[in-house]
Amino acid sequence: MTTVSAPGTHAPAEGPGPAAPRPAGRRPRTAVVDADIHPAVVPARLAVELPAPWRRRYERFGVRGAPPPAIYPRVRNGGMRADAHPSSGPPGSDLGLLREQLLDAYDLVAGVLIPLQGHTWGAEEPAYAAALCRALNDIQVADFLDPEPRLRASICIAHESPEHAVAEIERRAGDPRFVQVLFPSGSHLPVADAKYRPIYAAAAAAGLPIGMHLGGTEGHRGDGWPSFYLEQHGWYGNAMAMALTSLVAGGVFDELPDLRLVLVEGGITWLPSLLWGLDSGWAVFRDDVPGLHRPPSEIVREHCWFTTQPIDEPENLAHLATTLRHAGLTDRILFASDYPHWDFDDPVTALRVLPADVRRPIMARNAAALYGVDLPGDAP
Amino acid sequence: MNAGGAVDTDTHVAPASLADLAPYLPAYWRDYVEGAALRLDPTQAGAYPPGAVTDPAPADVATLRAQVLDVPAPGGTPVDVAVLSATSAFDVSRNPYYDAALCRALNDWVTATFLDHDPRLRGSIAVPSGDPEAAVEEIHRRAGDPRFVEVVLPVRGHDHRYGHRRFLPVFEAIAEHGLVAGLHAWGRAGSAATTTGFTHTYLQDYLAQGQIAQGQLTSLVVEGVLGRLPALRVVVAECGFSWLPPLLWRLDKEWKGIWREVPWVTRPPSEYLREQVRLTSTPAHLPADPDELAEALEILDPASLVLYAGDHPHVHGDGTERLLAALGPADRAAVLGGTARTFLLERGAPAPPPGTRSPTTRPHRREEAPR
Amino acid sequence: MKVAVMGADELAPGEHRVVQVGRRSIGIFRVGDEYHALADHCPHQGGPLCRGRAAPLAVAGAPGEVALDPDRVFVACPWHGWEYDVTTGRSYFGPGEAPVRSYATEVVAVDPATGRVPGPYVADTYAVTVEDRVVVVDTAARRPTDPEETA
Asked: How many domains are contained in chain C?
């Protein structure tokens, strides 16, 4: 719970008050798989897992990459659900509260961990980045996967140091609880750059999708830096759109036909307009992209998945369903809560903005098919 | 002015070389150009390579007449007004004084070469956008000429978005004179188009114009420029338009949660943008399937949003033709010229009053929550 | 049903707390010497509304000219941060689907106190009295859903 000391502001007198059990009617009637859960690792826990000399370096000098709160102020509770703080440590660091507020509260069949600390740690000095990401993955196993069979995890990698990244993918690929490889939308070079292709190739060879989540080390170049969080976050889908455009126009999917890409937390409704632009531009600028032999929309629909949070809520809700249909991949859309972030989408209520026939497969089936999760009622 | 004719809201003219501008440059700058062997890049720093244009942009009025004014809009409607976009100074220099001298010369050249020779023409004022004070000075200098209807700013280009306070005097001057703020595709090529740097393909660079335009519109509404200047009108040119509805949905939803950060934004952002912003028709990135096209247009409401632009001599495919063909007669007339006549051509036209809502949307109630 | 929920002095001005009344979770807010009660349920996605931060309304005469209006207190849902006036349960997100159902062109009145158009969401409120320095919530006599509509 946020505490406020400034005079004249209002704060709860004694924390959030007595814990109110969630009424039974809140339980979803259908199975839920959550494609975006953010665990957090506290510094003391990470240090224990780091070998010399990295532990001492981490304790005394930290990391160089600036995480989001330093790049832009997240104006709601530091970016967190105000009711998701455990008794100690940041939201997402306590499996007990994660169970209480998410896994048990909504009877989740499965949920995929996406530790965003990997986004900045993966861009550190190569050997240091590799040690940080390896420790982060070890902690995912020990603190989350081993005690909680409903959880799956993303392999955090030193994405700016592809040799280390490939080694980490190969190290974890034998553990079926790691269901994807995490990569940020913001990398030092365009995501289609040749530098990163060994990472994509290693993921495809291991049969793992790339889970691309917003964040990383992106800047604002042509458009200039936003001054406000609303400005930054309201525009944010474009950062994901830029990354997808880079991969498609750069021919990465044609080079790696087995590559699967999950675009997490970047929105979906911008996709139809982008696909129309890609197809139209491809048709008139063919000489610019000689490696692209078919309409880019076909490539996207073959290789890409999307997650729901933050779901749009247009005034006319029919427009949302129509737009998702225009994207042409409603069997590739995965429900995501983004727990424990400030704009958490509730598994029961958030997708009521969609018609039931569109919503149902999104809640569990699409993710189960992608990540290999058994749903209750499935034939053994 | 024939009320039934088309208004081409974005057609390009460009000096063939700096020699065309020499008569309008003071002696120091003529020497500066010569001494540094400066030239006007015909591709505008890669914005318009040979594969993306049919011809060089017209540099004389006879060519403009032959290629634009005397050629009907798609569907056969004659063009009776055309707004000139002169963007040659977008990517010339970061020397603010040269930028100012060049923009001033470019505006003199547009006036003497085109506006003085054909009554169908309207102009866009080029301004040194990196130096707001100098930009304001140039706006004041040109505003007395009623043929200038717009101030054109590169959509891509600075360390700050246009909603930032540093640019406020520019928008105040635009509003004061009843001009329109034009945000036109491309700009400072030294600023990478994407969050992760320079693109590898023209295709991505081209599509980034719309993505950057979304950043600028977000900035103008969130940083409070549109609310502070309710008479300000903005036209986004050559950046596409079909991306707008999802941007509005996202902004409105996020505003509900974090307006406390920007309490001057007292209404949903979409209301400011729907009232004070229009977008040119070209490029039109739309679905190929006719049923999906009809659905997309119902969501977009182009009659109230989109202004016809031929965008000669740039190549964008057949989207604009398909857009116009898919519209009913009234909506087509609005896109071809009706909306532009009041929004863009009429100096000092007010934006629609606050609180008016589009009649085209009908609410669709969210499913009832189980109790 | 009237239920005594706490002593009046248990909350300092500006504080709030969630209490359990049978199966109901209710937020009690003290604004000055007035007490208000809201259902601990956000009409948006069902979040535990009253576990959020409450703060005076933020106002701005112009960009950057920001201030707080101490007379209007809003609670922000801990999920998404959507805010509701603790005295009425009213949101100010625009006219939305209520109270006007038709989408013909219309002009919607702006609330002079907030400078915003009220609606569409209204959190449930309960009548509160203070009897012998005890805060009493009446869970039966729920106020009209939209008090300004019926006023």
From this structure: 1
> Per the domain annotation, does C150 fall within a domain?
no
**Is C13 inside a domain boundary?**
yes
Residues facing residue B236 across a β-bridge: B183, B279
Q: Which of C66, C104, C116 sits opposite B359 (nearest CB)?
A: C104
Q: Looking at chain C, how many residues does it have? A: 151
Q: A 78-97 residues with CB below 8 A of C?
A: 81-84
Does the beta carbon of A291 lie under 8 angstroms from any beta carbon of chain B?
no
Q: Does some domain include residue C130?
A: yes
At B192, is the pLDDT very low, low, confident or very high (cuts 50, 70, 90)? confident
Confirm or reject contact between A179 and chain B (CB < 8 A). no
Residue B141: HSE in the Cβ half-sphere, 13 Å Cα cutoff: 18
Q: Which domain holds residue A144?
A: 28-371
Predicted pLDDT at C119: 67
* Best residue in B275, B357, B358, B360 for a mutation probing chain C (most C CBs within 10 Å): B357
Q: Where do runs of H (alpha helix) occur along chain A?
A: 43-49, 54-61, 68-71, 95-98, 117-121, 126-139, 162-172, 197-205, 229-234, 237-249, 252-255, 271-284, 296-303, 317-327, 356-360, 366-371
Per-residue model confidence as pLDDT tens digits over B26-46? 999 999 999 999 988 889 989
Q: Are A155 and A167 in contact (CB under 8 A)?
A: no
> Is A3 inside any structural domain?
no
Distance from CA of A216 to the nearest CA of B (A): 10
Of A372-376, B300-304, C6-10, the poorest mean pLDDT is in C6-10
Indicate the number of domains in chain B: 1
Whether C103 sits inside 8 A of B353 (CB atoms) is no
Task: Say if CB B2 and CB B73 are below 8 A apart.
Answer: no
With respect to residue B35, please indicate whether it lies within any of the assigned structural domains: yes
The CATH code of the domain that includes C84 is 2.102.10.10
At A243-289, the pLDDT tens digits run 999 999 999 999 999 999 999 999 999 999 999 999 999 999 999 99
Q: Of A8, A83, A349, which is closest to C68 when you measure between CB atoms?
A: A8
Whole-number Å distance between alpha carbons of B295 and B284: 15
On whether the CB atoms of residues A84 and A95 are closer than 8 A, the answer is no
Binding-face residues of A in 195-254 toward B, CB within 8 A? 218-231, 233-235, 237-239, 241-243, 245-246, 249-250
